[in-house]
Predict the structure.
Amino acid sequence: MRVRRGEELRRRRRESARLLLALTCAVGLVAGGCASSPSTQPVVRVGVVDPQRVLNETEAGKKAKESLNAFMKNRQALIELEEKELRRMEEDLIKQASVLSANAKKEREEQFRRRMAEYQQKANELNREVQEKQKEVLEGFREKVEKVVARVAQRLGLVVVIEKGRGGTTLYHDPSLDISAMVIEEFNKGTP
């Protein structure tokens, strides 16, 4: 019985040692002694870029945001004008409700409802325009960023550049991998 236990213990130790060696080879902790050491495989260089930071800190990004904000303010002003007109119509209707005949009151209410429906349709249309403009501006900027990122990555010998940001796939990265500052500098030198 003791012999069996001893053999079982030695077998488990050998198995643990093999597993430990395999794990250390897999993560590259052992330089020699591994049949196919990761150290003989090419090193994959990775970079991380924060597109939001590039948008906020480049001249072209700031201009794109300003252009988009101006467009949005213009559309917002149109909506506010319509809202003012609707409020004025509503106030007039309330003030004159007691003096209007039933037919006239009903006609004014119907006119107000039609105007409200038109307003809602126009507001939806303007919102759609803003979304389309935003998509157009940001996609155009993104294409430029991708070209600059490619140039920086090639210069640094990076194989992969991962996007960092909210909702992105990068949960953590070593700060030394972040190439955002270099991309911003390159971008500000000359936008493609």
In short: The chain has five helices and two strands. The first strand starts at residue 46 and ends at 49. Residues 46-189 form one domain. Residues 23-33 have pLDDT under 50 and may be disordered.
